[in-house]
Description:
Elements: H1 2-6, H2 13-20, H3 26-29, E1 35-37, E2 43-45, H4 59-70, H5 81-94, H6 98-103, H7 113-126, H8 128-145
Antiparallel strand pairs: 1-2
Helix pairs in contact: 5-7, 7-8
InterPro entries: Ribosome_biogenesis_Nop16
Keywords: Nucleus
Organism: Machaerirhynchus nigripectus
Amino acid sequence: SHIRHAWDPHKSVAQNLAEMGLAEDPNKAVPIPKKLLVSVGMEVESDGQQPAKKIVRKPYVVNEMELEASLPEKKSNTLSRDLIDYVRYMIQNHGENYKEMARDEKNYYQDTPKQIKRKINVYKNFYPEEYKNFIASLKPEKMEVQ
């Protein structure tokens, strides 16, 4: 968005990027030094051509991009609604009997008992409070049945 706001449609891509202080070609911006073999057998790095310093007329673009990049990344640890419903259904109907869960008709992906157990553990780790409340809500129902 920073580049979009500073972009001048009447100039070329190279001119726009040069004004912002950005490189058009990364190979030219940070050149890889070529090594020449001398007749003696020693390697000598060639300097090549030094590109002329370009005048940066819009330095705020690079500064804003650096500032945005330095912000900490927001973690979005969530599970899909389908997986949550699947795990809750399995626990509600089968308790902790993973072999029975694997044979359930709602096991569309034909998960093995270990895969189902892993999914339940992922749910426990992502939503520990919700899991505790869910298990607590199941216990009174089972006591009434017995």
